[in-house]
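Cross-posting from the modeling subforum.

Setting up a comparison between two proteins and wanted a second pair of eyes on the formatting. Protein 1 (sequence, then structure tokens):
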Amino acid sequence: MQYYVYILKSLKDGKLYIGQTSNLKNRLERHNGGRVPSTKNRRPFELLFVEEFQDRSSATKREPYFKRVKSPQFIKEKMVAPSSSG
């Protein structure tokens, strides 16, 4: 099963949210539908970046990297959105 680490940007406050999922489309709908408690007050979101992994373990290991470098400037300079690699 494929897993994804993704970065969202709140169009309300400009802050970034980093997460992982096995169903990217559903997860984005949940974020923008207000069904994720940690992001419901920051809607709507745009997808900035996606990285694809072969398994959950790999995604779980990669997610902390993005959380450490969670700066809009880094995202703009280093990542093309939305994209995917594997």
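Protein 2 (same layout):
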Amino acid sequence: MYYLLAWVAYCGYIYIDNIVNGRGVQPYVWSNLMASFVAFTFCFFVLYPKFLNRKLILLFIVGLGIAEGLFIGTRWLVEEVIYIPLIGHGNYNPGTAIMYYISDNWWKALQPILLSFICWAFLETFNRERENEQLRQDKIQAELAFLKSQINPHFLYNTLNYIYSMAYPVSDRLADTIIKLSNLMRYMLADNANTLVDLQKEVDYLNNYIDIYRMRFEDHFFVDFKVTGDVGHAQIASLMLIPFVENAFKHGVMDDAQRPVRINLKANAQQLTFTVSNKINRNQKDHSSGIGMANIRRRLDLIYPGKYDLLIANNGDTYKSTLSIKLAQ
């Protein structure tokens, strides 16, 4: 829509300029508009967003030459090929050298090229400001939601401590499960959702989470969790990895010893790669993992903009997610 408005405004400018200067709407005005349309469209949709926006200066300079060529070539095609059989003459005398035609038209191409840049730059600035505002609003909403989620867990954490004291004399296994659950609650309460924590804490959280499931399902729970690299000197946003494990446990098969849920974490101070794969549970009625993945991507966009890759593979039998993050040192 913005592109169409800009082009209509440009056509209006050309029309008014010719009327004011007493030239009228002559055939060469239409050829100029058609050539300008081609150059303007190329610059607006290809040259500036593909090359200038990515700082590919050499390719951008080549693109400027292409824009000039498109303008000159289109105008020559209309005026010197199409117009001659239609109106009996072209815009230039017969036999005009091609170099003269180029030198007489290259500066005219600058008008649509510059106008398209102004329109593109305005639209780009507007879109970036709108995206930044949306990110600010999303961050505020995420922080408010996290603060709201802290109200009831405090009560649960204190209650778990009491239940642990009651369960300890009865069953060591039950008491151990309660203390692990208590540690999960402590981690969730102690660390803000958007602050960095030691990666080792995140690993401990995952281990406690897996252990609770293992105690629950006993011999019908098969998970292979491997950690490699130096996790002691890396940091990550808290609770960033657990959604992938939750998704695997919710939608995957956990009781197949031949195909366990595989969780692999490889990290150093600069880079983290986290992979979770599971056999898909075909008896699972709820397959709504799309919303969860969308929420994960939104959080990654907020905390690690331009610093992560998230790949999802689903072949109908196996679901695999691979997250790579460039970590802050």
